[in-house]
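Fold it.
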Amino acid sequence: MADQLELSAALSGYVREFSLREDTVLAELREQTSQLPAGSAMQVMPEEGQLLTLLAGLTPARGILEIGTFTGYSTLCLARALAPGGTLVTCDITDRWARIGADYWRRAGVEDRIEVRVGDAATTLEALIDERGAGSFDLVFIDADKRGLPDYYERSLTLVSDTGLIVVDNTLFFGRVVDPEARDADTEGVRAFNALVRDDPRVEMSLIPMADGITLIRKRRVTA
């Protein structure tokens, strides 16, 4: 049985050369973000951003919800996949970093499709449930504080449509999930989330060992 292929630096470079289609706007945003404290660690890889665009395009993409904006690289990737007339709601605890992304969203011509909500994520999600109702988003991307993952997941299950997709980032969390000495709240939050989703009969899921771990989730189809 073939095992997981280990990516050397040379092989990673090959994948990037023959797969990545990052344009100038995205590349410049990524470069600016890398200059921030922990910017490179907190930003999605460009390959992951490209995957998000592809995944969103496979849904109707009329409504997308992003939990965790940072400087808006993934926001831009997702907004580009929106169907005509579609909107993206992105939420973060502060607008400090999103203000960086706004200029790039404008340059890319998608600023008018993006709504930024600032505040506690759980509170924002509850407000969206009240305002828009269940099943109001075609894709939810979760990339926020890890201790809150189980809670964000439950609310996202309400907000995503029956045919929609939930994408969760950092589900291997720098490898800390398998480190018995790692007992911080964020690592424990990722572990709790991974166990919750694995055992949840309501959904189908796959944890992909790409980047820092990406989990794809959709509601289980009900058959007659």
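The mean pLDDT is 95.
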